[in-house]
Design brief:
By secondary structure, the protein is an all-beta fold. Helix content is 2%, strand content 58%. It starts with a strand and ends with a helix.
Amino acid sequence: MTWPTQGQPLIRFTFGRFDEVGYYNNQKNFRCEVTAENLWNKPIHAAAFTVYFYDKQKTRNGEGYLSVSDLPVNGRAKFEFNVTTSGRPEDFQLVPKNVPDEFAQFLPKREIPKIAITVNSVPQGAALKVDGEDEGTTPKIVKFTPGKHLILFTLEGYATGNYPFEVKPDEAPGGSITLELGSAMHDTVELRDGSVLTGDVEALSATDLEIRIGGTIQKLNRNSVKRILLIERMPAAQAQ
């Protein structure tokens, strides 16, 4: 058996005959001679592998441990290998346990586990983005990878909410976070070309609309306006 099983092989293990040497409490003990060969272009100073054993039904019924050290280029080493199983092993799999850093590029890619968390807003129904990606509307179960994230909530009539959120690697799934959206501070004018203006509507007629944006009045043709969302303002006498 060579490892890795795909691409350039780096090390080969040749297993001899498995001889049963004992039986106790429904567990069988086997022994065989193993030859390790260095197929790499560098010496292998230390490497360890777990060997998983399977029966005819492909059910794992035992495991053993292999290790080599100070194996020169093209070098070989023979040693005795022992394993205890719950039945006779019919097949086995070699899995790296502790290998040189140079072997890292040959290790299988590990999938980063995702953690399901319910994301909600008050009021509900806000459009939800996580790290710039659309996730639907709240409430929504979102699967997060461990690390830092930025959650964006938008809902007509309310100020946009940004929520920095960090997921710990040991975070338990099933948690929830909720953001209460604040009221909008300015009027919103949506144009027919899809653009949106935020400011204070100063005047509105059948033909024109005037909106103050950053202290400057802009005059728009009323026909270019698709929708206007006005916030409630206190009368000047009350505001003082």
